[in-house]
């Protein structure tokens, strides 16, 4: 069916654009900024129809997991560890989530996981290559 992208897999950070400008805009504390810079984050996605488990594995063993169903409100956590409620939408095979102060879009492009976050006109793009 149209709009069902295969997100499932493990993806390792490959590159990003506009990191510093973006984290400054969203007000990430400086210790978290350094921790996240060129961080080899592994993103693990388990997709079962409209149900997703989205886990970020940070170097050093810290993980953040968001579990959500497309179209239903879910409890989520930001990069900075803030908890909030969001409803993830699926549009043209892209997952779209409105975080408290930015809009996050995830899509699979050429087998890579491409995530774009936009805050007040600053666009942060993170690309991860599939490793499993």
Automatic annotation (TrEMBL):
The keyword Transport applies. Coiled coil: none annotated. InterPro entries: Calycin (IPR012674), Fatty_acid-bd (IPR000463), ILBP (IPR031259). Residues 9-26 form the Cytosolic fatty-acid binding proteins domain. GO terms for molecular function: lipid binding. It is found in: Cytoplasm. Signal peptide: none annotated. Belongs to the calycin superfamily. Fatty-acid binding protein (FABP) family. This is FABP6 protein. It comes from Loxia leucoptera (White-winged crossbill).
